[in-house]
Design goal:
It is a single chain. The protein has about 70 residues and is mostly helical. Helix 1 links the parallel strand 1 and strand 2. The protein starts with a strand and ends with a helix.
Length: about 70
């Protein structure tokens, strides 16, 4: 699924180009992003693939291994 997140905390840095962001409390921006996802199947698919690829960076086995190597 594509990711739509508000611009708070580390969301923009975490997502990079793997999702869409909008300004908190800006309903019209949120609705425009939703409309973009609804009306553009290609863009929706592209973001879904990028979001899935991004999750692979946080795989529990990889993360645990990195922690063990660190300590």
């Amino acid at each position: 699924l594509p990711i739509l997140a508000s611009i708070v905390g580390g969301n923009p840095e975490l997502l990079e180009n793997a999702g869409l962001v909008y300004t908190v409390d800006d309903e019209s921006a949120f609705l425009l992003k939703i409309r973009e996802l609804i009306e553009s199947p290609g863009r929706r698919n592209e973001l879904s693939i990028k979001a899935f690829q991004k999750t692979q960076l946080f795989d529990i086995k990889k993360t645990a291994k990195k922690y063990l190597e660190l300590y």
